[in-house]
Structure formats: structure tokens, C-alpha cells
Amino acid sequence: MAGLLLAAGGGRRLGGRPKALLDHRGRPLVEHAARALRDGGCHPVHIVLGAAAASVRERAELAAYEHSENPDWARGMGTSLRAGLAALAESGADAVVVSLVDQPGIGAAAVARVVAAYRGRGSLVSAAYGGRRGHPVLFGADRWADIAATAEGDRGARAYLQRHADVLTLVECSDVAEPYDIDTPEDLHRLE
User: 9 Cβ partners below 8 Å, 6+ apart?
Assistant: First the structure.
């Protein structure tokens, strides 16, 4: 079970502060998000960097994780999802759990619940909050090529998940996680 952390965004609505470098509990946010995937049962964990990638590598402790740089990060999350799936294609993983760097309220417990719902290489699983789909999301390896082909802009796999809602397993996680995003300066109070 691989983990994929999308951490390439430039934080446009945060005044150009890359989200991966935001401080949370004294360390860059990217470290917390990667640890949640690892502690939730994912190995390897691959991080897709983009904006300020050199600074992220310099400041964050990423030695325990694989990472690559998405040169097209400014075109949206879909490019990072494609880059991450391509990087994991030869990993031998049967599935990948995808998480976003800007959701510090989602930890290892939610990841572990999603991992536990894996049933095979065709699995499609999503954490849910009050019955609404959220992150993390698990994609069985048999679905990766189709997901990559449809990932566009800031929507990532949203269209794919909507088209396959009839086979999507929702795993309620609202009792162990909070799905808020750190998108604007008003959201920064959620960081510790």
C-alpha cells in the first residue's frame, strides 16, 4: 500500500507561501502529512513537490520518503496526481492512498481506516465526513492509468470519482479527523 502526498502548490491564496513549508507544531506541514500516511500503513510514501521544491527539501526532513518534483505544478493538482502515479508505477504497490499537504486535521487514524477498506487492485475508497466524500482517497493499481488520463487542473480525480460513485466505498472518518483545508490567511489559525 503506497502513499502519495500532493505537496506542490504555491499557496496563491496565501500570498505565495507554499503550503508544504507552513509551520505546524514547529515543523513544516509536509512532514506531518507524510508521517500520517506512513503511520497509517503506507509504504513507500512518495511526495510530489513543486513550488519552492529546493526550499522544501532543504528545510523539511524527508529522508524517510521518496520525492519528486512536478515542473508543471502551477497548472493544478491534476498534474501532481499524474506525476505521483507515474513515479509509483514501478513500485509494485497494489494500491495508493492519496492525501493533500494542506489538511493537517487528517492524520494516521483516517489513513488506516481507508487502508483497511482495500479489497483488491480495483478498489476505490474514500474517507467520508458526515457522508460526504473527502481525503484521503485510495485507488487500486488497476485504476491508476484511467485516473491519470482524466486528472486535470485543480480537480485531480474528482471527475473520475463522480463517474464511478456506484463502486466507491465511503469510510466514515469524522470521529477521527477533520477535513479542513489551509487555503487562505484566515485558515492559518488552525495551525499549531
Answer: 18, 19, 20, 50, 51, 73, 77, 101, 102
The maximal CA–CA distance of the chain, rounded, in angstroms, is 43
- Compute mean pLDDT per 10 residues along the chain, 192 residues long, and list them: 96 85 94 98 97 95 96 92 95 96 97 98 98 97 95 83 96 97 91 86
Q: How far is CA 132 from CA 33, 36, 129, 135, in A?
A: 21, 21, 5, 10
Could you tell me whether strands 23-24 and 169-172 are parallel, antiparallel, or unpaired per DSSP bridges?
unpaired
pTM for the whole structure: 0.96
Buried b (16+ CB within 10 A) or exposed e, 84-114: bbebbeeeebebbbbbbbbbbebbbebbbbb
CB-based contacts of 136, cutoff 8 Å, min separation 6: 37, 40, 97, 98, 99, 106, 110, 111, 114, 126, 127
C-alpha grid cell, residue 108: 494516521
Q: Which of 38, 2, 9 is nearest to 184 (CA)?
A: 9
